[in-house]
Every structure is written in structure tokens, then in C-alpha cells.
């Protein structure tokens, strides 16, 4: 049985796709021979099938590999560890073209508008993490004469990393924070997007990382993911995905009280006050939800505008979206919005649009039908496309303003004053991000202080920086990724008391 398959990309380029589980720096077959099908969201066609891990034997193999590598890895000098990260970043950079095309084929991301930027972000993340590797020291102080206290930040052990389908490579690279902190890891890819991480795995071995430091298993979340979460040999779980699954992860991880970082769903508000730059607000509102086909956990998917500027905002929002977010096949260099990840997800988005109209919304752009340019394209009309859709006159209690859709759908409503805006912004089970547009700096900071979210964007939307922690509150999860806070999430803090005086 071959664990590689030659695949022809839409560009005509051929490459060898690994199909096995990546354990101990080798591609190996599944213990039970089961496979997982990878589909092309742009056409609806099957790409290939990869090996699917046995929930018992293969998860055990991967965890054992990581466990055996842990002590040697945490003993590797910080300088050598940093150099390995920089070498891997270099290799990813050299393979940007291939990785971005595979990422696009597997996830439906337009190559130029999304996938290439995602791969470039992997390079940047690895370089950023390399800089932190020798800077994770603790604190020290002398509480009294003859006394010294200090803290150590030590790696936890084996970390189980569960990554989502919407950013298969870039979200994976965020969880390399675990490895930077001295842990070893078992990564489970999303069952919808198993391909690009296996291509990346080849580069990990080529960079010189010791066997077992980085392992990859493919499979369904309910079986393979749950086996990883509940495994007694795993010391921490880092999860990115839906709130519903995140709740199960937290419950199942409690079997050995392992710590859990949960980055779950969101319904981030964007609040536009009448004193805002309406042109800028409209641009950022579109970017905040239509980027990556609306498949963004932190997407600003519910917008509320002060009444005096509501109609002006809608006009500018529609015009900007029409001009800047064309729908097209992932390989089309002019496409900005590609397909949804699966046919079921496409149907779910259409259902939300139809439900919003039934509740009282007006569709002022897009709608619950295949985009016209795709419907007339024989090659791609079987793909899972949804047009950027704007729903006007949404009330805060409407389903589209309360539930995570995870598609290119923006609901827009109105508010009266600051108190009304704050009430609406916080009227959500989620708390990942929040955006506010105003020229009043006092109002902006007051909003940032009072809104219930892990991140706030003032006069922008959905920005991130590697130096800043990413994460939410309420049903959006807990724990942080990126920045120093993210690094510390993958360590155990040990307090050390030193006495050098007589009792």
C-alpha cells in the first residue's frame, strides 16, 4: 500500500501528497486500514483519501511517540531549539507556492486572496515563536533576609492540539507555541482538511526536529479527537473549533484534570456610532465578515449602526462589498470569496438567510442561492459557494444576530445611543471579539472597558498581531494563544523557596 499519491493541482502542477499518519517522523498506515476522504470544496469532487487513525491503537502510538520524545526535547538547548524553528520557517517560506495551492485545494480558500497569506503567516508565526524560546524565564525576589523565592516555567509534557478547518495551517502554527515551550505534541487535523498539514510534516522532518516532537493523526473528531482528549498520556489539550464541541472537550479532558485551552465560536459585534468615519466603518465591516468566506470565529458578523447614519452606512457597505469581494473558484487569481467548506455548511448558511427573511430582514446583497457566475460554470457549479450576503433591518434578538453562522453573512441593525449599543453588544452568549467605530476617544475606551469580549478593535475589525493574546470569554472559550500569555499557557509554574539562614 502506497502512502503517497501524485495529485495534479488546478494550476497543472503535480506533487506527491503524503497519505499516512505522521508518527515519529515517518508516514505510517492506520492500524485498522480505515481512510478519510478529502473533498475539493471548489468543485465538490473527491481529491483523495488519507489514512484515518484507529482511536485506540494509533492514538496510543502517537501519544507514546510524543511521550518518548518529551524528555530529550525539553533538554535540547534553547539556542538549538530556536535554530530548528528558524530552519522550519525557512523551509515553509521556500515551499509557499506548493503549500498555498494544497491549502486552497483542500479548504476552498482562494490561492491569492487567502491561502498564500495563510502560509506566509505560518512563516511569521514560527519566526516569532523562535524569538520567545530563550525568553521564558520566571521571576525572583527576596521576601526577607536569608530568603529567596523564584518561579520556573516548565513544559507540561504531551499536548494534544486539535485544529479547525477554516485555517488549517495558520491555526496549526499558533499551536506550535506548545513545542516552543518545550512540550511535544500530537496534532489532529480537521476531518474536512487533512492534506496540507501532511505536506507541512515533511518539512518538519527535513528541518531536523527529533522524531516524536511533532505527530499528526487524521480522523473524525467524535472518535479520534475524543480519544486524544481523554487520553491519560496527554497533559494538555489546545482546541480550536465550535462551542458545542468545545464543551465536550472540556468534559472529556477532565478524566485526568488536564488543562484545556478552548478557542470556540463567536458572534462578534461591530458598533458604528454617528460620529464615525462611515466610509472606513463600511470597509472594515465588510472585511470583518467576508474575508475567508465568513469562516472566521472572530468574524464581526452582527453590525449595529446609530440611526442617523444607518441608510448611509448600508449604501456604502453594499457598494464596497460588490466591488471588493467577488466570488470565484479558488484557483482564480481574481477571486476573493471562495466556497464554503462542505455542502452541509453551504446548506446551513442558506437556511440562516431564509430564516432571517422570515423573521423580518431584507436581503440587500447576495441571498440563499448559488452565485450567478458559479451557476453558469460547469466545472464549479457543484462547489459549495455562497455570495457575500447583507441582511438589513436585523433586530438584536433575531437568530442571525445571535447564532454563529460561520459563513459570509452580515446582519445589520440600528441602535439609539451608547447605552443601547452596549446592551446590544453584550447581549450574546459569545465573547470573542468586538469592534467599535467612533472619533470620540473617550467613548472608544469606555466601550473597550465595558464590552464583554476577549479582544476589542477600535476603528478596525478582526485584526491580529503575534504579540497580542488571542482568545475570548463566555461561550467563546478560555485561555489565550499568541503573545507571552499564549506561551505561558503551555507551561507549568513552579514556585521555589530558598532558605539560607538559620531557623
Question: What descriptive keywords fit this protein?
Answer:
single chain; 503 residues; alpha/beta; Aldehyde Dehydrogenase, Chain A, domain 1; Aldehyde Dehydrogenase, Chain A, domain 2; 2 domains; seven-stranded mixed beta sheet; six-stranded mixed beta sheet; 17 helices
| Name of the CATH architecture of the largest domain | 3-Layer(aba) Sandwich
The CATH superfamily title of the largest domain = Aldehyde Dehydrogenase, Chain A, domain 1
Number of domains: 2
Low-confidence stretches: none
> What percentage of the residues does DSSP assign to strands (E)?
15-25%
Biggest sheet details: 7 strands, mixed
Task: State the name of the first-level CATH class of the largest domain.
Answer: Alpha Beta
How many strands? 24
Distance between the termini: 70 Å
Tell me the structural class.
Answer: alpha/beta
Q: CATH topology of the largest domain, anyone?
A: Aldehyde Dehydrogenase, Chain A, domain 1
Keywords: Oxidoreductase
Pfam family, one: Aldedh
Family: Belongs to the aldehyde dehydrogenase family.
Protein name: Aldehyde dehydrogenase domain-containing protein
Write a structural description:
The protein contains 17 helices and 24 strands. It has 503 residues and is of the alpha/beta class. The protein is globular and about 75 Å long. The protein folds into 2 domains: 4-31 and 47-264 and 480-492, Aldehyde Dehydrogenase, Chain A, domain 1 (3-Layer(aba) Sandwich); 269-466, 3-Layer(aba) Sandwich (Aldehyde Dehydrogenase, Chain A, domain 2), CATH 3.40.309. Helix 2 (78-94) packs antiparallel against helix 4, helix 2 (78-94) packs across helix 7 and helix 3 (96-107) packs across helix 4 (111-132). Helix 7 (196-207) links the parallel strand 10 and strand 11 (214-217). It holds the Pfam family Aldedh. GO terms for molecular function: aldehyde dehydrogenase [NAD(P)+] activity. This is Aldehyde dehydrogenase domain-containing protein.
Amino acid at each position: 500500500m502506497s502512502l503517497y499519491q501524485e495529485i495534479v493541482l488546478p494550476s497543472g502542477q503535480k506533487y506527491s501528497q503524503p497519505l499516512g499518519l505522521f508518527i515519529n517522523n515517518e508516514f505510517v498506515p492506520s492500524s485498522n486500514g480505515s481512510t478519510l476522504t478529502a473533498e475539493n470544496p471548489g468543485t465538490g469532487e473527491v481529491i483523495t483519501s488519507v489514512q484515518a487513525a484507529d482511536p485506540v491503537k494509533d492514538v496510543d502510538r502517537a501519544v507514546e511517540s510524543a511521550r518518548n520524545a518529551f524528555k530529550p526535547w525539553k533538554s535540547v538547548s534553547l539556542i538549538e531549539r530556536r535554530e530548528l524553528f528558524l530552519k522550519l520557517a525557512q523551509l515553509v517560506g521556500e515551499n509557499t507556492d506548493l503549500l498555498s495551492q494544497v491549502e486552497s485545494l483542500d479548504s476552498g480558500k482562494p490561492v491569492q486572496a487567502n491561502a498564500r497569506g495563510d502560509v506566509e503567516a505560518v512563516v511569521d508565526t514560527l519566526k516569532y515563536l523562535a524569538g520567545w524560546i530563550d525568553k521564558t524565564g520566571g521571576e525572583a525576589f527576596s521576601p526577607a533576609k536569608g530568603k529567596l523565592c523564584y518561579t520556573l516555567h516548565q513544559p507540561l509534557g504531551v499536548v494534544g492540539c486539535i485544529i479547525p478547518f477554516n485555517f488549517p495551517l495558520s491555526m496549526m502554527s499558533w499551536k506550535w507555541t506548545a513545542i516552543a515551550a518545550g512540550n511535544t505534541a500530537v496534532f489532529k487535523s480537521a476531518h474536512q482538511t487533512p492534506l496540507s498539514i501532511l505536506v507541512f510534516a515533511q518539512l518538519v522532518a527535513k528541518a531536523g526536529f527529533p522524531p516524536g516532537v511533532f505527530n499528526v493523526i487524521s480522523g473524525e473528531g467524535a472518535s479520534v479527537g475524543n480519544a486524544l482528549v481523554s487520553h491519560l498520556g496527554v497533559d494538555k489539550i489546545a482546541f480550536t473549533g465550535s462551542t458545542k464541541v468545545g464543551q465536550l472537550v472540556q468534559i472529556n479532558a477532565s478524566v485526568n484534570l488536564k488543562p484545556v485551552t478552548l478557542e470556540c465560536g463567536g458572534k462578534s459585534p461591530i458598533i458604528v456610532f454617528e460620529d464615525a468615519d462611515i466610509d472606513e466603518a463600511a470597509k472594515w465591516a465588510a472585511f470583518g465578515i467576508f474575508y475567508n468566506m465568513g469562516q472566521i470565529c472572530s468574524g464581526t458578523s452582527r453590525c449595529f449602526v446609530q440611526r442617523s447614519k444607518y441608510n448611509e452606512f448600508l449604501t456604502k457597505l453594499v457598494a464596497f462589498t460588490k466591488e471588493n469581494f467577488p466570488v470565484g473558484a479558488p484557483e482564480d487569481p481574481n477571486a476573493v470569496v471562495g466556497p464554503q467548506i462542505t455542502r452541509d455548511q453551504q446548506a446551513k448558511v442558506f437556511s440562516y438567510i431564509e430564516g432571517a427573511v422570515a423573521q423580518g430582514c431584507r436581503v440587500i446583497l447576495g441571498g440563499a442561492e448559488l452565485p450567478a457566475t458559479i451557476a453558469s460554470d460547469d466545472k464549479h457549479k457543484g462547489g459549495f459557494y455562497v455570495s457575500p450576503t447583507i441582511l438589513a433591518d436585523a433586530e438584536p434578538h433575531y437568530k442571525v444576530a445571535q447564532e454563529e453562522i460561520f459563513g459570509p453573512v452580515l446582519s445589520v441593525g440600528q441602535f439609539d445611543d451608547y447605552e443601547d449599543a452596549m446592551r446590544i453588544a453584550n447581549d450574546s452568549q459569545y465573547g470573542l471579539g468586538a469592534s467599535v467605530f467612533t472619533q470620540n476617544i473617550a467613548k472608544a475606551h469606555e466601550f473597550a472597558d465595558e464590552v464583554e469580549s476577549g479582544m476589542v478593535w477600535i476603528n478596525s475589525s478582526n485584526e491580529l498581531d503575534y504579540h497580542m493574546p488571542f482568545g475570548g470569554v463566555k461561550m467563546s472559550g478560555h485561555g489565550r494563544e499568541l503573545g507571552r500569555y499564549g506561551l505561558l499557557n503551555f507551561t507549568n509554574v513552579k514556585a521555589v523557596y530558598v532558605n539560607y539562614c538559620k531557623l
